[in-house]
Amino acid sequence: MTEIHELSDILANQIAAGEVIERPGSVVKELVENALDAQATQIDILVEDAGIKSIRVIDDGAGITNDQVQRAFLRHATSKISSRQDLFRVHSLGFRGEALPSIASVADVVLKTAVMDAKEGTKIHYRGGELVSQTGTNARQGTDILVKDLFFNTPARLKYLKSQATELAQIVDVINRLAMSYTKVAFHLVHNGKELLQTAGNGNLQQVIASVYGLSQAKKMVAVNISDNDFAISGYVSLPELTRSNRSYISILINGRFVKNYNLSKAIVKGYGSKLMVGRFPIAVLQISMDPLLVDVNVHPQKHEVRLSKEVQLMALIEEMIVKCFTNQNLIPDAYDNYMHGKINDQIVPETDDAQFMAQLQKISGTSTNHVNPNQGINDDNLASAIDGTSRHLQFQNEATHASQEQTSVHPIMITDATDLKTKPVQEFAAKYRLEDNIQPFTEVSTPVAADEMQLDWNDEATTIDAPVKTGFPTLEYIGQMHGTFLFAQAEDGFYIIDQHAAQERIKYEYFREEIGKIGLDSQRLLVPIVLTYPKVDILKIQAHEDELQAVGLHLETFGDDALIVREHPAWFEKGQEESTIREMIDWLLRDGNITTKAFREKTTIMMSCKRSIKANWSLNDYEARGLLTQLSQATNPYNCPHGRPVLVSFTNIDMEKMFKRIQDSHESWIEYDNHPF
């Protein structure tokens, strides 16, 4: 049996480093927190190669005296606590005394430090947990610590680091949260000589938010505050119109410490109520002050999670604060901003004109092409005119066809006995319709169409004519519409109710699934480029996923330190929704991180099909409704929308008869049944 023995200090520190120091961002977090605990007012963070090559943190804090510098690198050596009671009243960010020895055990560390009025400072050098040298140095108050060659002696940990862009994004996120926690401290973050963040340290939280998220975002943040006997909460929350696709933009700061707490985040979202769209989350920065006795920070190696004694009370207080904030708040979006945004979108014009397509469009619609843009999707403003124009054309075409049929002499086929079935007219009739068993109901145009021609469907979208897929879908006969939302239809087997939005969403989904697979064929050049502003941490993440964006035809260029510029976009984007579509696509990358190209295209397809489908409370005439049912019958899967909701429900003939008691319970006699007055 192997003997039990005590581990060496170096090995013990390396094991501890596995819990405390996971990545370069962990090193930055521990060193900056030490500087904050030392009452620093100015902190400079200089990073090279996302911290893998070097991390340098310079502060103007209290510093360390010469006789205690070496003691700071001992495991569990700390100045933050000294007794068991102190563990329940932690006022500092750090208190375990594990950070410096853990970092020194897996890196090359050089620390320079001096206290106020000292004649000489101290310079100490550790590598792999072993002391290399200790000498005197110039006396500048504060601490200057340089960490190089991180994980040089633990190659397995170095191997599992993410890309430099991902690791740098983590560092930026750490500094962003600390800057919002300590607004009276001036932070300066530099990567490879390039400034990523700088705050003034004047105590203005909204200015820090502007530095992190951008000025335009900060202007849409509303100040909030509330307090009771146990908690004091202050900060900023975004207007309901400013949302994100995940909770990562919610910063909860308890006694200056950023924590992740699902219940508190849920309370923030709950305070908005129905003002937030489903699946969207606000931007929020809340600073919560409480008695240290009410929070236990010693439950997570990196102190990201805490245990709260009165969590339910705090949740209720946060929800109440958000509700009161928006009770008398004007939540109507700025009309001028929307107007200016609309003017910019109106200036987006196609780079070239397709004369052949425009001529075909004019031929089909029977109207001037000035009224329809071939690259323009159907939105609330132009859907009515587009549908109306197409409907008038179909109605005119049917009337003309009907008039033509009246002028044509028709010779009926007379069958009097079995021998008439072998006559030539009957054989020709049977042969003709034997080949047309795949014809779908409500087909408006019965004449053959060449394979290279395009057909304009009922919502003025140009799509190729595909052979219908046999799916066992019933042959529906349109009856009517209810509340501009549901279509009624009947078939041989019963009665059907169709959700018109879900139906067209399925149709559009299958169309865009094909179109997005043809990336690179068509793109729309913008007369006025779209500029997207994001925090630097998000810019780094977006740059790490350029391949996925380009795979769906979206090319982004860096524009300054915190902005991206879009000069062209895929032609299948809906006019007027270019920027919102691009932002939503980028949100997926920021939320999912490791999303594959296939999954990204799938999400894009679902989004476009939803955006470009008719909505509820939109009346359709008979031709439009029948055209929709025809297209639905040709879908590969006509039963569910891309989100999984049912497209239609049915009542069989038996169900209908049961509901109206035309089929009675078995205990009722036939005599009584026959006497019913129907």
TrEMBL record:
Residues 478-620 form the MutL C-terminal dimerisation domain. Keywords: DNA damage, DNA repair, Endonuclease, Hydrolase, Nuclease. The keyword Nuclease applies. Coiled coil: none annotated. InterPro entries: DNA_mismatch_repair_CS, DNA_mismatch_repair_MutL, DNA_mismatch_S5_2-like, HATPase_C_sf, MutL/Mlh/PMS, MutL/Mlh/Pms-like, MutL_C, MutL_C_dimsub. Residues 209-327 form the DNA mismatch repair protein S5 domain. GO terms for molecular function: endonuclease activity. The keyword Ion transport does not apply. Belongs to the DNA mismatch repair MutL/HexB family. This protein is involved in the repair of mismatches in DNA. It is required for dam-dependent methyl-directed DNA mismatch repair. May act as a 'molecular matchmaker', a protein that promotes the formation of a stable complex between two or more DNA-binding proteins in an ATP-dependent manner without itself being part of a final effector complex. This is DNA mismatch repair protein MutL. It comes from Weissella sagaensis. The lineage of its organism: Bacteria, Bacillati, Bacillota, Bacilli, Lactobacillales.
